[in-house]
Amino acid sequence: MRKVLAFACILCVDIIIVYILDLGGTLFKSRPSNLDLSLLRQWAESGLRCTLLYTGSLYCKDAADRLIKRWIAVHCLIGSVYETGRSTIFGNYRLDKLNMWLVGTVAAALASLLWEITLPDTNGEGNGKASKQKARILFMRVIRFYKPDYILLCGAFVFLALAVLCEMFIPLYTGEVIDILGSKYQWDNFRSAIILMGLFSLGSSFSAGCRGGLFMCAINSFTCRVKVQLFGSIVRQDIGFFETIKTGDITSRLSTDTTLMGRAVALNVNVLLRTMIKTVGMLYLMVSLSWKLTLLMLMETPLTGLLQNIYDTHYQRLSKEVQDSMAHANETAGEAVSGIRTVKSFRTEPGEARRYNVRLMNTHNLKTRRDTVRAVYLLVRRMTELGMKVAMLYYGRLFIQYGQMSTGNLVSFILYQSDLGRNIRTLIYIFGDMLNSVGAAGKVFEYLDRKPEVSTDGNLQPNVLKGHVNFLDLTFSYPRRPNHNVLKNFSLELKPGQMTALVGMSGGGKSTCVSLLERFYQPQQGQILLDGQPLQNYQHNYIHSKIAMVGQEPVLFSGTIRDNITYGLLGCSMERVKEAASKVNAHAFISKLENGYDTDVGERGNLLSQGEKQRIAIARALIRQPQVLILDEVTSSLDTESEQMVQQALASCPTQTLLVIAHRLKTIEKADQIVLIDSGQVVEQGTHEELMDRKGNYYKLRERLFNDDNTVNQEKQKSITKKV
Known about the structure:
Blueprint: H1 2-27, H2 35-58, H3 66-90, H4 97-118, H5 125-145, H6 150-182, H7 187-235, H8 239-244, H9 247-289, H10 291-298, H11 300-338, H12 340-345, H13 349-401, H14 407-436, H15 439-449, E1 469-476, E2 487-494, E3 499-503, H16 510-517, E4 525-530, E5 533-534, H17 540-546, E6 547-550, H18 561-565, H19 574-583, H20 587-592, H21 610-622, E7 628-632, H22 640-651, E8 657-661, E9 673-678, E10 681-686, H23 688-694, H24 697-723
Parallel strand pairs: 3-8, 3-9, 6-7, 7-8
Antiparallel strand pairs: 1-2, 1-4, 4-5, 9-10
């Protein structure tokens, strides 16, 4: 209500100003005047009214609304715009209803353009400026990534300019041919026009082909280079990064966003320069053909710009939502495929299919909304184009009747106009899209710029490493649960030549100790010493060549058995491969395979049994001859013979530091040191005999597990008896 009252006050003030200006004009009415002075006075009055009303609105809080300011600008200036357009096109002629409508439409279009330029929407202005500034920075970074391809881009731009210049003259000579055929036929002129039009057509086609080929070569080179750098940056990240980022997001960055980055610069700059050169050249040629028709045609520009701006805002938002939805759908499919054994074991195939269907339907609905917005935009735009073409043909016929242009000139003008409208829309769109399209580069650069939380800047590489490990007062919590301490003031010593076994209930912190020793994470407090030096001081490749781990669930990569055993090693001889495989009782079953060590293990090693995969994983660790070896429940799937051979292989390295995690306590009874961990703290520590004599937590744990094993064995025996 207060804004309505403010609007009414401004309206009253404007009426008073108009009355005063009109009274002043009446006093000088008797003086001689011409058209130019009349328009000048009208523009001066409009400017004065607009200035006074706008200044007054600044002092009234309720009147300082964007809508009121826009109304002031249009209300004060539309009359002057109207009279200027009418007098420019028609002079002092009396206008009929159609011409009145035409000039009114031109005035409204120009006023709308003035509206958008002078008083743009200021919603989120601060955020908009920050977003545009960020987009410009990203855009410049993308351009710098194109540095190795500058030669290809320069060649593409040269052919781009040649293609555009040749293409511009084709409509001009088309109209000239029509004029020659419509007037007294002259063979020399006709032949010259045809030859020039053919040469320009050939030059345009050749240059356009070269331009497209060079741009595609630059884009492909850029995309491949960025994908390699991005993948290298991702695999260097710490484990915490992969725990917080979903696999679908990573694959989407690698597959989709890198491609969008390449297209953002090369294709957009290509379109921008080509369109800009064509637009300027066409406008010059169209003005030379008929400046009045050119002015009539340009009235479509502000309306098209406003329509394009509204369309871009909604379409880009929906496109981003579609992209995110597709990433979620890919993630769902990837989870089901990677865990297909679990899916089948629980018979949840229909549930996974429904879950994937829900994701796809969400993507489908978003695509439908996006495509609906595009359909409405295209409909309105085509209607605008149709109205403009009808008006242009109508006035073109009048100008031909008045002798102001020839038929060939009108044909050339129509050919130019059909392209110019599209070019202007492209220019309006491309300036915003060039910055918006590099938004896909934001996530890519975020991954490229991310520094691992676990430092890899150490440079210590001693020639001799004993393998003496000390955990000193460690406190640690995982990134996904920062408020839950997995380890609390944890201290432990691992001596060279000794086997240390970590035991305890699940969730006590055993695997966390291994992860910290492997430098997967960085503890919040305390430190880990290796031969008296902090672990982070050692060179990254060196430390991982001296510390090897075999996990509870061994991971094999697609490739041969030999590739998996020598994974990460260069120039490893076949004798060393066979020696490592023999130590873990794997050489016998490998030799029986059709291709031996060259047998493909399949994706994730699915062509091998669990026990075979464990033996190959242990061989992969032993072939490195590490000074510190970590085994996380690695003998759970091994038969008795293979387990004994693994133990013999480990016993053959008397100076090696061995850390074992086991849930089957019988397998670690011969350990030099058994450490019972519970709730992130060391509860008991000693040899098996010492801990059993104390009859503490270790004794109770062993008795409970022993009773559980007996119960399981009895149940199995009963089941077998019933079957028999």
